[in-house]
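Quiz preparation item.
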């Protein structure tokens, strides 16, 4: 298969892409079709590596309004709504929603997903269902699973045992939620426990870390220290780190040294954090998004995630990575032209680093032929015009196509 006229990652010049046996065989200008080779003209459209969703909760996805809508939009009413929905949770319900969510993602060019799954459930219903259903969804996406202790590790009955059981069942990453534990001490102990569990089992880590406006929430320094001392380094991701938005600049100055040494990754979730944080503020209201610009400038890896997709905590979403990038750039004031052009990296290569996808991710000869085509000439245009992903190719196979809308305006 020969794809003609691809504008790969905002390149000035177009290239042709030859795909054979599911891999990129040749990427060069002006390739001629071989005898009998099928061709498709991409017309100079933007070609990117597949999108990566680095932070979502698939166990709760697609439940907004069922059985009740969150009328205040707050985190706490979200928890009340979820408590009412949780009664209906069973394996088939979870699998059905995950299938639908992954199809939404596929239509928007997302081929890799990291989902957090609540393991503060003695029966681990959702976890078992997601571990099962991910196998049948491999043609559309790779799904990484994080054992996420929604109600804490030390603050929930048998929290440690449930985490250990989740590891036995086959999760890819260990989570924690230090700011939610009953005490600061429990928060520290939960991080020590989670880091050791990950190190012992050779797993990745992704912690819901300081998802609060409380500037005294200091889980991040403990997580980064343990990541450094245990040699986990870039296997570790700190998700949210909203409190960093509110830390004093003097403390951040000191913290940055540790963060750089630790090598950990960050995931910001601008849609959900701007919506749920700052709720205890009157005015001025904080945005609650971590210091993406400063972290990026310090050479620290930052990705953007959606966090929620049409659930009690976030009532919108269509499985696209576009909105989190679009809002994220506004919220963290990274609207310079170069910043906008490069911002696709928050949901491609930076997110791929979070998931440890390795060298086989990316548009390079020899790699699996996975890429997306957007109806735009570059990413600035794609973001500004909300351009659709017109084609998603995964390991050489077209798995999703979208026809751009045609608009007619009267003279
Ligand atoms: Fe989350």
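Solution:
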């Amino acid at each position: 298969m020969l794809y003609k006229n691809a504008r790969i990652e905002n390149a000035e010049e177009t290239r042709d892409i030859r795909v054979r046996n599911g891999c990129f065989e040749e990427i060069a200008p002006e390739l001629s079709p071989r005898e009998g080779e099928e061709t498709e003209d991409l017309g100079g459209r933007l070609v990117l590596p597949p999108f990566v969703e680095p932070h979502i909760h698939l166990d709760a996805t697609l439940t907004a309004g069922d059985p009740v809508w969150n009328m205040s939009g707050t985190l706490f009413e979200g928890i009340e709504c979820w408590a009412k929905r949780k009664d209906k949770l069973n394996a088939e319900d979870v699998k059905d929603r995950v299938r639908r969510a992954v199809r939404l993602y596929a239509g928007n060019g997302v081929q890799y997903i990291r989902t957090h799954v609540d393991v503060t459930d003695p029966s681990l219903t959702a976890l078992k269902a997601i571990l099962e259903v991910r196998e049948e969804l491999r043609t559309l996406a790779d799904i990484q699973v994080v054992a996420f202790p929604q109600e804490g590790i030390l603050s929930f009955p048998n929290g440690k045992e449930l985490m250990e059981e989740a590891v036995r069942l086959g999760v890819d990453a260990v989570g924690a939620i230090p700011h939610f534990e009953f005490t600061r001490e429990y928060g520290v102990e939960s991080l020590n426990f989670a880091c050791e569990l990950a190190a012992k089992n050779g797993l990745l880590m992704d912690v819901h870390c300081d998802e609060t406006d409380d500037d005294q929430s200091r889980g991040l320094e403990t997580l980064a220290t343990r990541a450094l001392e245990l040699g986990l380094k870039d296997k570790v991701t700190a998700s949210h780190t909203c409190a960093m938005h509110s830390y004093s600049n003097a403390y951040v100055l000191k913290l940055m040294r540790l963060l750089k040494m630790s090598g950990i990754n960050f995931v910001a979730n601008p849609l959900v954090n701007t919506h749920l944080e700052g709720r205890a503020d009157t005015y001025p209201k904080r945005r609650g998004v971590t210091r993406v610009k400063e972290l990026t400038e310090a050479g620290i890896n930052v990705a953007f995630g959606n966090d929620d997709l049409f659930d009690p905590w976030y009532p919108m979403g269509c499985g696209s990575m576009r909105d989190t990038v679009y809002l994220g750039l506004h919220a963290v004031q990274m609207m310079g032209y170069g910043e906008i052009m490069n911002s696709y990296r928050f949901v491609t290569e930076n997110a791929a680093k979070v998931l440890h996808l390795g060298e086989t991710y990316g548009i390079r000869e020899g790699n699996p032929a996975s890429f997306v085509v957007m109806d735009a000439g570059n990413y600035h245009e794609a973001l500004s015009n909300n351009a659709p992903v017109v084609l998603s190719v995964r390991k050489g196979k077209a798995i999703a196509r979208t026809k751009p809308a045609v608009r007619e305006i009267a003279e």
